[in-house]
UniProtKB/TrEMBL annotation:
Its cofactor is pyridoxal 5'-phosphate. GO terms for biological process: threonine biosynthetic process. PANTHER family: THREONINE SYNTHASE FAMILY MEMBER, THREONINE SYNTHASE-LIKE 2. It comes from the Eukaryota. Keywords: Pyridoxal phosphate. It comes from Ganoderma sinense ZZ0214-1. This is Threonine synthase. One of its GO terms (molecular function) is threonine synthase activity. Belongs to the threonine synthase family.
């Protein structure tokens, strides 16, 4: 993105984590006066329209496999590499709309806040269970670990709040629908406030059980990521990026416990050319592999030598980002 030099495109690099950047974007949207002046919009999954579009993946792949497999008892299990929870939330919405699929698999890297939630119902930035931490780079002050699948190096997923709302709504004993909706919103606001102030919240058992009815979750280490890239290259000559591989590893892990009528679909979420370090490291010594020949699209060649344009923001501060927007934005 930094090689796009069009005059109306401005790339900002914030010194911080994905969570920091997402908090800044949410704060900007929450500033009604600033938002009205600059007419802000989001193209990531903060924007619900992005998630709505992603539901198509599930319907399309479902009908493709149904045409290929005649078994009336067929159950499709989706496994999705997950960071900000948008792609897999689209699967949840597809299921609520009536798509007859099995439980959705949440595949996380060493930033395993979601995997831990499905284990014990605690939504917490730092693991308080005392379990030994393996793999992933050293965590920063917020607890985020640097991994080989960086687009998933996220702790507080904006879209997980949306799922929590449904879980609270579905388990509510309120009979009045308007009260039920309002109460669910108030509960989520309270829970996310606790995550922000205390770093954790523990959800009621009935909410956790409702979550387990539609999802399961597993964690994948960097070592397992590298091993799985190599496994699929050796066995299928398929070169996967380190995010897709997180999903592939979880699918292989749970497959032996699936019933015979279950078929798996793993969503591939990135191109391996974007993650040369992980791919070349995993396939080091593979004589049949050449990164430039086997992975790199023609459009990527010479990309690193192109002119770059980047605006550095020296801290995770919404006011610093506002200054950049004010400087470059033009209201017509």
């Amino acid at each position: 993105m930094t090689t796009v030099t069009d005059p109306n495109v401005h790339n900002l690099a914030v010194k911080g984590t994905f969570d920091d950047c997402q908090d800044i974007v949410k704060a900007l949207f929450g500033d009604r006066e600033f938002n009205a002046t600059h007419r802000l919009g989001a193209v990531n999954s903060i924007n619900w329209a992005r998630i709505l579009a992603q539901t198509v993946y599930y319907f399309l792949s479902y009908f493709h496999i149904r045409r290929q497999v005649a078994d009336p008892a067929l159950e499709i299990q989706y496994v999705v590499p997950t960071g900000n929870f948008g792609d897999i939330l689209a699967g949840y919405y597809a299921k609520r709309m009536g798509l007859p699929i099995g439980r959705l698999g949440v595949a996380t890297n060493a930033n395993d806040i979601l995997a831990r939630f499905w284990k014990n119902g605690a939504y917490e930035k730092v693991d308080s269970s005392g379990a030994a931490v393996t793999s992933g780079g050293a965590a920063d002050e917020s607890g985020v670990k640097e991994t080989l699948s960086p687009a998933m190096d996220i702790l507080v997923s904006s879209n997980f709040e949306r799922l929590l709302w449904y879980l609270v709504y579905d388990t509510s004993e309120e009979s009045d629908n308007a009260v039920r909706r309002s109460s669910a919103g108030a509960t989520i606001a309270d829970w996310m406030g606790k995550v922000k102030s205390d770093g954790r919240v523990q959800v009621p058992v009935e909410v956790l059980e409702r979550a387990r009815a539609d999802f399961f979750a597993e964690r994948v280490s960097d070592e397992e990521t590298l091993e799985t890239i190599r496994y699929y290259f050796d066995t299928a000559k398929y070169i996967a990026d380190p995010h897709t591989v997180v999903g592939l590893h979880v699918a292989r892990t749970v497959a032996p416990s699936n019933l015979g009528h279950v078929r798996q679909i793993v969503l591939s979420t990135a191109h391996p050319a974007k993650f040369s370090e992980a791919v070349t490291r995993a396939l080091d010594g593979a004589t049949a592999f050449n990164f430039e020949r086997d992975v790199l699209p023609p459009e990527f060649k010479g990309l690193l030598e192109r002119e770059r344009r980047l605006i550095d923001v020296e801290g995770a501060d919404v006011e610093l980002v506002k200054k950049v927007i004010k400087k470059y934005a033009t209201v017509e």
